[in-house]
Amino acid sequence: QVPFYSFCHLIFTRPMWLLSTTDDSGKVDEIMLEQDKHRIEYFYQDQGFLMAKVTGVDIEPVDENFRDITFYIREGHKFRIRDLNVDCSDEEFTEKKLTEYLSFDEGDLYSRTKIVDSINNLKTILGEHGYIFADVYPQLKPLEDQNLVDITFIVEKSHKLFANSINIVGNQVTRDKVIRRQ
């Protein structure tokens, strides 16, 4: 159970209040409701609820100016990470070396934010080695009966890029070799 007050600041749809004319709170917008659904799902999935889903939204008129909005959420169970792998199929980057850059360990709660952080960390380390167009895709295999998930990050490196020449222009005081050295 996740209390409402812990994610009510995340959604765009807000109740009307004294200064509603300054921040558009109190208005019902279908596009914002759709974004709110995704933000609520992301929040729950960030807390370990891998299968969390907003199953529906009801908008009920209270009177001619007010509406009650209800989000229906199926949160499911919290999932823990059972197995964590990086599939790179390369001699330069071993699975053990790349696993060090993941934002979580086996046994941790599932978290979408940590998935995104891990992807960014892997892309950064690959970029530092010349693979600036590398892509990383997470593959999730949930074991629903045990509330566990196996995560494999698939790495597609692309071509390694090298600097051909470095040109420095506009420097009046500092010499080129000093800038290159730094």
Entry summary:
By secondary structure, the chain is α+β, with helices and mostly antiparallel strands. The protein has helices at residues 20-23, 30-46, 95-99, 112-128, 176-181, and strands spanning 53-61, 67-74, 80-87, 135-143, 148-156. The longest helix is centred in the first third of the chain and has 17 residues, at 30-46.
Q: Spell out the helices and strands N to C.
A: HHEEEHHEEH
Mean pLDDT: 83
The share of residues in extended strands comes to 15-25%
| Distance between the first and last residues' Cα | 53 Å
Overall SS class: alpha+beta
Oligomer: single chain
Strand order of the largest sheet: 3-5-4
Which residue ranges are poorly predicted, with pLDDT under 50 across at least 5 consecutive positions? Answer: none
Largest sheet: 3 strands, mixed
Q: How many individual helices?
A: 5
Radius of gyration: 24 Å
Topology:
Blueprint: H1 20-23, H2 30-46, E1 53-61, E2 67-74, E3 80-87, H3 95-99, H4 112-128, E4 135-143, E5 148-156, H5 176-181
